[in-house]
Design goal:
Rossmann fold, 17% strand, alpha/beta, globular, seven-stranded mixed sheet
């Protein structure tokens, strides 16, 4: 069991600053990043109330890099709502929180393939109310099928492959400051002129 002294050190991960991509990250204007945990699909009868740890870790890294971060755990919000209805939740509480925060970029997690339809439903609805906000999709399913997703779903601008603690902060910086730097980021997939660009995650 981790002590209180050690626990903060577990999530205090350093983002490397040894490349041209990172030279100006400390000087950036803070952007608002919304992280979303979509609801479990309807066929899941056992409602999982677990905390989305992956988003908590990612949030800690983004905050360390001076980003303004908000997590919306739609799964637990809907489970704990009075009627458990997604449409009512989205058109009410979610829209209010979304408009109040007014994100510059959105990250959506899709842990497993069974949740992909639910994640895309959320993304499609967000694009209807805010079509210009860039969306990054991450998780096991997008990591396995990045080409297919980018080809078939133009509402997704980027995919983070594998763990996003290092690649996501760099992606945000490159998107808002110099998109030519995207090609230097390991662990992302995105569209470029002439086709798709897939940069595999470096394992070492």
């Amino acid at each position: 069991m981790c002590s209180e002294k050690k626990y903060p050190e577990m999530i205090k991960m350093e983002v490397p600053r040894d490349s041209e991509l990172n030279k100006t990250m400390d000087n950036k204007i803070s952007k608002k990043i919304l992280l979303i945990n979509p609801p479990s699909p309807s066929f899941v009868t056992h409602k999982d109330k677990s905390i989305p740890l992956s988003l908590l870790y990612l949030s800690a890294i983004l905050k360390k890099n001076n980003y303004n971060v908000k997590i919306i755990d739609m799964n637990n919000e809907i489970i704990n709502s009075e009627d458990g209805d997604f449409e009512n939740y989205f058109s009410g509480r979610f829209i209010n929180e979304f408009n109040s925060f007014n994100p510059d970029m959105i990250g959506v997690t899709c842990l497993f393939s069974g949740r992909f339809k639910s994640a895309m439903n959320v993304i499609n609805k967000i694009k209807k109310i805010s079509p210009s906000v860039p969306i990054v999709l991450g998780g096991i399913h997008p990591t396995i099928f990045p080409r297919e997703i980018l080809k078939d779903y133009n509402v997704v601008e980027y995919i983070c492959l594998g763990e996003g603690e290092i690649s996501f902060p760099k992606l945000i910086h490159a998107h808002f400051n110099n998109q030519n730097l995207l090609k230097d980021i390991n662990g992302i997939a995105y569209r470029q002129e002439g086709g798709l660009k897939l940069i595999k995650k470096r394992l070492s």
